[in-house]
Write a structure and sequence with these properties.
- The chain is mainly α.
- The protein has a domain of 33 residues.
Length: 58
């Protein structure tokens, strides 16, 4: 699952780099808050996925 997310992120980065200069639209504080929120949401989704896989395999 993590490998798939990493591959999608890499593809997005390559496309963004190909389109020209990348500009930041958020302040460092906003970016940090968004990153923390995304990481927590991502961890919950991954945990829920693993829990579903375990419950369906038994």
């Amino acid at each position: 699952m993590t490998a798939i997310m990493l591959e999608k992120a890499c593809r997005s980065q390559i496309l963004a780099l190909a389109s020209g200069e990348i500009k930041a639209f958020s302040s460092q504080q906003d970016a940090s808050a968004k990153r923390k929120k995304y990481i927590m949401k991502s961890m919950k989704l991954a945990f829920d996925y693993c829990a579903r896989k375990i419950s369906t395999s038994t």
